[in-house]
Amino acid sequence: MAALLISGCSGLKRPSKDITVQIHTGTTGLAMSFLKNAPPSDIQATGENQRTPFQVGISLENKGAYDIKDGHLLLSVERNYMEIMGWQLNDNERFTQVGASGEKVSFKLKGRSDINPTGEIDSIFANVDALPFEKQSITRSASIRATACYGYQTLASASVCIDTDAYNLNPIDKSCTAKDISLSGGQGGPISVDKIDVSVLPNNEEGEEKSASPQFVVHISNKGDGLVFNKDKVSDACSSANLKTEDINTVTLDDISFSGYSLKGGYFECSPIQIRLRGQDDKFVCKVKKGIINTKTGAYSTTLEVVLEYGYSQTISKDLAMSRII
């Protein structure tokens, strides 16, 4: 039951200092595929009561902008026809056996960065046995599936105009004009920030010192072909445990910030924090709390950052044709 492990990241090529590497772009996190002829499309059994061993090879590549620290890879076969004999890890630090069944390994892969603009790639093989044919059977078909589950993050940034004098009460020239922001091309993960509606709401306050509350309506979507779920349920998603309804299609707002004001710092009121994706206008609203930004601040340009966290899973499959040589 020997198996083989191939490392597809033999070295990292540092980009030239004169080249600007675009890390937070694209809508792919993990890319996965079966390796050529592993498994083979056709499997021939040589004897009536003999098992036929073959290998399943899976390539994993982190094409996104976030490191996968505790991913899970689950191999599934039709147990009436096949049995998983185990993985060959070869002391590879990226993969670790999970449980005694031999069906699952955990993995970690770094995403794109300044020193590695393509992200890490690695491959792993599992040993599988095709079980003996029944006497009356000559051919049969079966399928193999591989499912990856992992936690991921999307970081979106955009230049916005904060105009604290929304009603033009101060007779000064403004350096910018507040407007909605459209984003395209993704931010290096399957969950994408597509649009940010920008406005400033004056607060009704007594006295000379009055405040304004910048408000952001952030529109997001799932641009990948996988399932998004609660970031704390990665292990459950790749197991026999069923995800609860409230955990499916759930994205968590980790932070939103500009000019030193942040959700984590207590400056924002946001709703909802847990966003349920329903495939239409999925959004959340964040507003700076009352009494923080003075209306006399005027208008200025700054960078708004949004951090989203989520779990993600995707599955690949392959059909096999099995036959017994008579």
Description:
With 326 residues, the chain is mainly β. It is 1% helix and 50% strand. The strands form 3 sheets. Strands 3, 5, 7, 8, 10, 14, 15, 16, 18 and 21 form a 10-stranded mixed sheet that branches. The protein is elongated, with a radius of gyration of 26 Å. It has one helix at residues 234-237; strands spanning 5-6, 30-34, 42-45, 52-62, 68-77, 82-87, 95-98, 104-109, 121-130, 139-163, 181-182, 191-202, 211-222, 227-229, 250-258, 261-262, 268-271, 274-276, 283-288, 293-294, 299-324. A hairpin with an 8-residue loop joins strand 11 and strand 12. Residues 1-18 have low confidence and may be disordered.
Characteristic key phrases:
Immunoglobulin-like, mainly beta, 326 residues, 2 domains, 10-stranded mixed β-sheet, 1 helix
Span of the ends, CA to CA = 26 Å
> Any idea what the shape is?
elongated
What are the secondary-structure elements, in order, as H or E? EEEEEEEEEEEEEEHEEEEEEE
Quote the average pLDDT. Answer: 87
User: How would a crystallographer describe the biggest sheet?
Assistant: 10 strands, mixed
CATH homologous superfamily of the largest domain? Immunoglobulins
Helix content: under 10%
Structurally, how many domains make up the residues? 2
How many extended strands? 21
* Assigned CATH architecture of the largest domain: Sandwich
Count the DSSP helices.
Answer: 1
Radius of gyration over C-alpha positions, nearest whole angstrom: 26 Å
Structural class call reads mainly beta
What would the CATH topology of the largest domain be?
A: Immunoglobulin-like
